[in-house]
DNA sequence: GTAGGGTTAG
């Protein structure tokens, strides 16, 4: 039966009842309930208004009807006006308050009132579980514990409703052990599926996948669609995306039909895996399944958009976004991130500008997008726009600070970085560990390793990213020993080194030329930490051998790299050949260099320079000729300084500016400062 | 004879 047919049927039903000579109060109450259930609040009100007699059921029905239609103020008016009130009236109102944003205080007030005077509305299991849900929503375990005590005292702690509410409250407010006790303290034989699902979700929240699956599997006959969705989501949230997909297929095989929650989680796992074929399969499935469509739920359309964005298929993403998700913030932020990851920053900005209402998620996506595209000036410009917003709804959050600090680091401009740091300190806003890492990185990249270290030492909460940032800072500033010490400290403090840690530590090795140490770290990467070296790690090792004039080993190592060599690796090797005047080995890789790196002019120039440095003009000429044939060109790398509002850039060997006396003296000063390596210690 | 409560997605 379609919705309109249903509504017609309801209305004629209502008409029949009302046209009867004496519709009973009971019949009218039923009608109010029916209308409300189908979203026909106006019809429900009409019945209520026209009733000559009403009883407590009537008042409860109309109050609930208004709560259901999200009109809390109207239900409040009726609650106050009601001549009869019982515990159902109170509990309905309590539910309304507890579920709505901004009415939490009223919920507490009403609950307190129930404790005191009314003898017709005592606190019961309904009220207690509702308050438990509120404590869960507010993540307030202290209040939750008080409720729990009261529940035990009044014998209201053992039903399925009570157990699920307690498990959920404890888990969401970060007390897994209490959730465990609440679940295991009840009689296991009578555990119902909702409590079980709540506890499985609690285990996943705690990261205990093993326990979650044990509970899920135990008494599997209880499992329902929510149970399956819980384990699928749980795996996806714990980074086990492949398992999440497998479980979803398993759910199919067990005869459970995917619902909106299932699709949302599977889409989420699919976008993490960046698997386009699976994405297309899911898309087809959504189009085919009659109970679901892209329009039925914003989670589904934005999830689908996100999958296509992560897979780089912006055409498909755009078609779904423009049709179903143009006002959805999650869909929009996926689009912004998707376009930025392809360096299409103006398309990203178009999506951003098309939104009338911008949430912090969208702002943060645009900030990161600009940073990703190296558009530092746009990062600052966007911050300016953010500050000019009339509404104070969006305040800069950690992700905004990270983007701004990232832009400062990228441009090596310390002053705006210091201003942001100062702002954070002055306003005493709470910052998370990511912002602290960004501050460390900013100071390090702007040349002030002392400040970076000071912030690192003072950070109360550290994570492995923060260690990596600090370690890279040490490596770049030539404090190799400190980098090695920090590596040990990181391990001692219980953090596991990851791929980025090894980039930092191998960089430290190559800068200090400690081949043996580098080899040991590289070995430990696979043998001890079970990590797979990536192209950058191999590049570090080749550079390490190359700088130490162990070109034969470099060559040998290069031949053993299990992935295809890239231009960076070959370029690194060529630099070493030039440094140690080894033309023979340069010759050996020449063909490969030009095959892989031929598209950009960089490698041609590099190769030509190797020959030129040894006055091998014929070889150099040969390469230059090929270069012209390929229309290759090389953009010169440069350094720059900010003086006032001007940026002065310098390329290697450019002496045209040295006529400027003040510039010369600044340069001398800088050289002096660089030579005086400052003493720093990492242990306080 | 009516009405109020729990679990899974940003």
Description:
This protein is mostly helical. Among the domains are: 534-635, Serine Threonine Protein Phosphatase 5, Tetratricopeptide repeat (Alpha Horseshoe); 639-684, no CATH class. The chain has helices at 3-19, 25-37, 41-50, 56-68, 72-81, 87-99, 104-116, 125-137, 141-153, 160-172, 176-185, 193-206, 209-217, 225-237, 241-253, 260-273, 276-288, 298-310, 314-325, 329-341, 345-354, 360-372, 376-388, 398-411, 414-427, 433-445, 449-458, 464-476, 480-492, 499-512, 515-527, 535-547, 551-560, 567-579, 583-597, 602-613, 617-629, 661-675, and strands spanning 638-643, 646-651. The longest helix has 17 residues, at 3-19. It is elongated and about 115 Å long. 39% of the residues are buried. The protein binds one DNA strand of 10 nucleotides through helix 2, helix 4, helix 6, helix 8 and helix 10. One of its GO terms (molecular function) is RNA binding. This is Pentatricopeptide repeat-containing protein. It comes from Deinandra increscens subsp. villosa. It holds the Pfam family PPR.
